[in-house]
Write a structure and sequence with these properties.
Helix content: 10-25%
Strand order of the largest sheet: 6-7-8-9-10-11-12
Shape: globular
Structural class: alpha+beta
Mean pLDDT: 89
Number of helices: 3
Radius of gyration: 20 Å
Order of helices and strands: HEEEEEHHEEEEEEE
Number of strands: 12
Low-confidence stretches: none
Largest sheet: 7 strands, antiparallel
Strand content: 25-35%
Length: about 260
Amino acid sequence: MTTKPDPSPKFARIGMWMLVALVLLLAGPMLAMTFGRAMASADWRTASHRATGVSPDPALHREPIVEVFASRTFGWRGAFADHTWLAAKPEGADRYTRYEVIGWYARGGGSALSVSDRRAPDAEWYGAPPRLIRELRGADAAAVIARLPQAVASYPYATEYRAWPGPNSNTFIAHLGRAIPELRLTMPSTAIGKDYVSLGDIVGSSPSHTGVQFSLYGLVGVIAGLDEGLELNVLGLVTGVDLRNPALKLPGIGRVPGDG
């Protein structure tokens, strides 16, 4: 009589490796929380939205300008993710217009899309300073601005919002990147939601249009591109390597060295 092998050790090893992988994925966010990148104890009612002086003064710079910013999201979620938005100023304009998705706008079936010139283009996001991740001026900016209305109108999730895995603010800005090749936008690896796409777009262009992307609802996927490098997405947390501008990409931390 033969004895069947006991599968328990095999399952135990699989469970151990899954636990190790989970610990490694969460190590970055925990470090981000420990070293103050996330404002876990802040009060959203008193958090600052002051301008930071990063964007050129439109009174002095009359040319078209397009800028894309990222800031740490508010509260404990800042240990994991960024909030991104785009600001644009046509030639001769006195103010910038901000294009972004704001989650609570979608409550009650409303649209999460915000297109407004009421807030400074480079304002802090609930106390978190903005990082400039893309800037275009002159003819390059004008080409993007000309395509913005159609790109915004084609965003398919205007009345939907989920912080994880998407669609959210980063889903929208990544959509603009895919819809406007001239923007050549490389999203921060910490922009959870950037990889959220419908099943019809499970394989397609990366937001920078310099590579290809496979993504299953932003929960698992991979990007390989000249600008993005190689990114592996597991549950929205991205690990990767950039060979063009050498850096590692770590969950919750972003680029090492540098941030983006």
